């Protein structure tokens, strides 16, 4: 469904990712893991249309979207949960969710989508009138995921959803991501929690210094000595 080929992106003369090729199939669950500074956030922002590619190609559902403006990525079926959540903290939980269904066909189904999100996150339903900025970190992350789901995406991109959360909340977050995927939404997850990410995924890529250095089935990657030493503490 999503096909990136020889993708390059950076900041001025400083490249952040280069010659990255990856695929996410319909209903797939793919993770990109790697250390701090590897270029993971630049990569996922490029896949979401927020960071302009310098070269390479990006196709979604057979359509070339390499030159689409950022706001059109949501129209074709791609939604991003950004690092740090990026909520509108001075607005209510309901208002943050409704913003997720602002565009296109999603707007016509906003109320039905809202009820589905509340069913998945009952805590949000109890706090619809509460300011987003007063939620706990875990609650804010659930709101960020719920906002993205309001757009009715075919592909959900998640950038470091476990960052800064307590271990019990991280486990809950990963359970939710798995359930969303099982309901038919393809997921591409960028994550530093390598052990949990590999356990969750069907396919994985390892990004180091802006390049894909390994890819394949998670269990195969987890058995490689380099991956064990660098990421799994073995």
Radius of gyration: 17 Å
Q: What's the name of the CATH homologous superfamily of the largest domain? A: P-loop containing nucleotide triphosphate hydrolases
CATH architecture of the largest domain: 3-Layer(aba) Sandwich
Q: Low-confidence segments, ≥5 residues, pLDDT <50?
A: none
Quickly count the helices.
11
Q: Give a quick account of the main beta sheet: strands, pairing sense, barrel closure.
A: 6 strands, mixed
Fraction in helix: 25-40%
Which whole number gives the mean pLDDT? Answer: 93
How would you describe this structure to a colleague?
The protein folds into 2 domains: 2-77 and 154-232, 3-Layer(aba) Sandwich (Rossmann fold); 90-152, no CATH class. Strand 7 (155-159), helix 8 and strand 8 form a beta-alpha-beta unit. It is 39% helix and 26% strand. The chain has 234 residues and is of the alpha/beta class.
Give the topology, please.
Layout: E1 2-11, E2 14-24, E3 29-33, H1 40-47, E4 55-60, E5 63-64, H2 70-76, E6 78-81, H3 93-100, H4 104-108, H5 110-120, H6 122-125, H7 137-149, E7 155-159, H8 167-182, E8 186-191, H9 194-200, E9 203-208, E10 211-216, H10 218-222, H11 225-231
Parallel strand pairs: 3-8, 3-9, 6-7, 7-8
Antiparallel strand pairs: 1-2, 1-4, 4-5, 9-10
Helix pairs in contact: 3-7
Structure characteristics:
about 230 residues; alpha/beta; Rossmann fold; 11 helices; about 40% helix
């Amino acid at each position: 469904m999503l096909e990136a080929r020889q993708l390059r992106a950076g900041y001025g003369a400083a490249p952040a990712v280069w010659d990255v090729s990856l695929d996410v199939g319909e209903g797939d669950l793919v993770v990109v893991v790697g250390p701090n500074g590897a270029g993971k956030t630049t990569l996922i922002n490029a896949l979401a249309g927020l960071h302009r590619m310098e070269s390479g190609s990006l196709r979604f559902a057979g359509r070339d979207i390499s030159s689409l403006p950022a706001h059109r990525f949501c129209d074709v079926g791609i939604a991003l949960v950004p690092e740090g959540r990026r909520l509108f903290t001075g607005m209510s939980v309901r208002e943050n969710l409704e913003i997720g269904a602002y565009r296109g066909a999603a707007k016509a189904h906003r109320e039905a989508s809202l009820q589905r999100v509340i069913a998945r996150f009952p805590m949000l339903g109890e706090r619809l009138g509460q300011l987003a900025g007063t939620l706990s970190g875990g609650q804010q992350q659930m709101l960020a995921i719920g906002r993205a789901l309001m757009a009715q995406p075919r592909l959900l991109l998640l950038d470091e959803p476990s960052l800064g959360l307590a271990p019990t909340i991280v486990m809950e977050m990963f359970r939710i991501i798995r359930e969303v995927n099982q309901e038919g939404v393809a997921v591409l997850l960028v994550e530093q929690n390598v052990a949990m990410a590999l356990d969750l995924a069907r396919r994985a890529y390892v990004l180091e210094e802006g390049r894909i250095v390994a890819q394949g089935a998670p269990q195969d990657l987890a058995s490689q000595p380099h991956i064990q030493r660098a990421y799994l503490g073995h």
